[in-house]
Amino acid sequence: MLNYPLKFRPILKEKIWGGNKLKSLLNKNSPIENLGESWEISGVKDDVSVVANGSLKSNSLTDLLESYKGDLVGEKIYEEFGGEFPLLIKFIDAKTALSVQLHPNDELARQRHNSFGKTEMWYIMQADKDANINIGFKENITKEEYIKHLESGAITELLNFEDVKKGDSFFINTGKVHAIGAGVLLAEIQQTSDVTYRIYDWDRVDDQGNARELHTALAIDAIDFEKKEDFKLDYDKKENTSCQVASCRYFTTNYLPIKGEITKDYNKLDSFVIYMCVNGNAEISIDGNSEKISKGESILIPARNKEVKITSAAETELLEVYIS
Predict the structure, then answer these.
(1) What is the pLDDT of residues 30-57, one digit of tens each?
(2) Rounded to two decimals, what is the model's pTM?
(3) How many domains does the chain have?
(4) Angle 266-38-128 (CA atoms, 0-180°, nearest 5)?
(5) Residue 193: CA atoms inside 13 Å, Cβ hemisphere, count?
(6) Among 27, 61, 136, 250, fewest CB within 10 Å belongs to which?
(7) Nearest to 94 by CA among 119, 118, 122
(8) Do 87 and 184 share a domain, yes or no?
(9) 234 within some domain
(10) Domain identity same for 139 and 276
(11) Percent of the chain with pLDDT over 90
């Protein structure tokens, strides 16, 4: 029955650049030493989330979609995506910098990989002193300039770097080069896709001395070479109010700081709702059934549930995600 908040088992990913913060700060239980990602809610093939609580425990997200269809995700969303869940929800810890990369748009991804494109956003949960991210280029460049710098190992001279701190948020359009820098812990909301074009990896090798694969040829036709100030997201922080951070055709993300008790009315929304807890803890109730959520946890509210009560004794910060 879709009458309670759904939690899923985190899918934990070892990464060459991963660290310890998912365990030490977000309480992910894992023996993995370089823990880079926690996939909170995923419909990606071979990495499909499984319910961790309640009467639907051990059912996969695919099972739920097959059984409940629009009641789970919303009627319009089910009509468009069918048995594919449209979003991938993650927490990411970068002990060292990720590769400089980009993602193809829907058209290219469909042609080349039979996949969705990958539009995404980041919410910075914690950042070490002087931590930064790469996002876009410093200036407009030509394809020829890009190739010249790439071949000479000087690609970083073209990149735009932004210092980051807790609460900063960024939107990454398809085609925009980007890299999470060392010392950054963040929440990521993205289209369901695992297609990444890696263009530079800081000359890094694994413990066998092997460099990771680069996707130089694939990336050329997918890169946006134009400098665009379209990535830094400004938003309000009004208590007990859904404050819009990002909104696009693929997802809407709101910052929702909670203290006390509020009731959310989703009667005008034909979508599931995901809460990612980025600080504190709260109790979330639907149909009289409740589930606790703490920092580093995520919960899915099925689309059929139109009234959600959220209670927190202390200040708690949630990201509220849906498709509008």
Answers:
(1) 999 999 999 999 999 999 999 999 999 9
(2) 0.96
(3) 2
(4) 100
(5) 25
(6) 27
(7) 122
(8) yes
(9) no
(10) no
(11) 96
Return the residue matching tokens 């990535």.
231
Residues 25 and 161 in one domain: yes
Active site residues: 198
DSSP assignment, residue 77? H
Q: 92-135: per-residue pLDDT in tens?
A: 999 999 999 999 999 999 999 999 999 999 999 999 999 999 99
> How many residues make up the chain in this entry?
324
Q: What is the domain-level CATH number for residue 291?
A: 2.60.120.10
Calpha distance 59→43 (Å, rounded): 13
* Number of other residues whose CB lies within 10 A of the CB of residue 99: 20
Task: Give me the numbers of helices (H) and strands (E) for the chain, helices first please.
Answer: 7, 20
Domain co-membership, 106 together with 212: yes
Tokens of 21: 């913060």
Reply yes or no on whether the pLDDT at 211 is more than 90: no
The answer to whether residue 87 is domain-embedded is yes
Same domain, 46 and 163: yes
